[in-house]
Every structure is written in C-alpha cells, then in structure tokens.
Amino acid sequence: MQRMADVERSYTGDAEETGGRKGGVGEAHVRGSTGSARATGTSTRKPSSSFFLALRKAQKPKGSMWRLQGANKKLVENIKVKEEACAETKSANNILRAQTMELTERLCFLNSILEIAEEVRGFSVEIPDIPDPLLKPWQIPHSTQPIMATANMFLR
Residues annotated as region Disordered (predicted)? Predict the structure, then answer.
C-alpha cells in the first residue's frame, strides 16, 4: 500500500513541481507564438484511475495473505491454549479418580472392620453395600427423577 501511495504522489506532484504546468518527466516546454506550452519529445501522462485500481488489485492478494497468516497464528495460539487447558483438566480428572479409588478402598476397609467387630461382639450393625461407581461410569450414583412428557407437548 505504501508503494501505491508513493506512485500516486509522484504523478500528482508533477504538476505542482513544474509550477502548475502539465509537464512531466522527459518533457521540454517551449513557448510558441501563441503563448501556449507545447511538449516535445516523449511525454508521460498522468495514469488513469484504472491504473491505480489494477495496482491495488495486484496488492490485494498480498494483504489478504498477510491477514490469513495473522488469523492462522491466532488460531494456532488459541489451539495451544485450549490443549493446555484440556491437559490440565485431564490431569485434575485423573487425580480425582485416584482419590475416589483411594476413598472407596478405605471405606471398604472400614466396612470389613465393622463386620469383624459385629462377629466378635455380636452387635448387629447394618452395613450398606457400597456400589462401585467406577465399574459402571455410565450410571449416575444418585437417584434421578423421571421427566414426564405430555401428549400435547409434541403437538405445538
């Protein structure tokens, strides 16, 4: 974009630099009998607006490429952040699973102590069976309330 602005300035600045005359690089101004300026030699005219449009179109792929590269870098950074968060969550989940297993083993051990104490003393202590939630992970350990659907619910 900077080069295009420089090109535009160089073409628009020609008239200003020559004192308002419509001459450009490579032109010689000669005053004739009529007093008007005549150009001799090679003349360069101010390019039309289509020239600048073509120049801008040529530079658009580079700009879009840089935008896409920037967007890709942002996506890569976001993916890395999400992967780190996922890894942290997995490690925390593994720690919680290990703690659950440890607490389940301790509870089973304490239940076995209560069973031994019951046999020795003759006391009747009710020990509920502890379901192992890790053997059936698809089942929720607490009871759930069913959601009843009505016949009119699907007609709306």
Answer: 1-50
